[in-house]
Task: structure prediction
Amino acid sequence: MGKIIVFAVSGDEEQILFRMQKYLQSKENCMLISESENKKLSFPDLEIDLYLREIRQQKRVIKLTDLEFRILLYLAEQPGRVFTYRQIYEAIWGEEYTYEKGNIMSHIRHIREKIEPDSKKPRYIENIRGVGYCFKKQ
Result:
């Protein structure tokens, strides 16, 4: 998951939206979300709103940086799937992986501190030792 572009359109703008959607579908790491879609990922005590780019936990909005949001979304879109450090780095940073494992680990630690009830016993993001991370199936 990479860039997320949000537009509110009506009537005459529908054609522009359609063309932009087609263009973005041809690009990696891009997604266009219209207001009518208002896509949300919901998990026990955690909601990710793609349109508003908000994380909510029990009605409380959690502030994440852009990178943290993109990493969390990338993992949460496919719960249970294990993503390697390489996959995460290349999807989020859009560059070839240069063994920046520490950078990824640091961002995951910050995400956990913000969304996990107990960051020492993660409920959402699991480390797969020596491989990468997985958003746990709830």
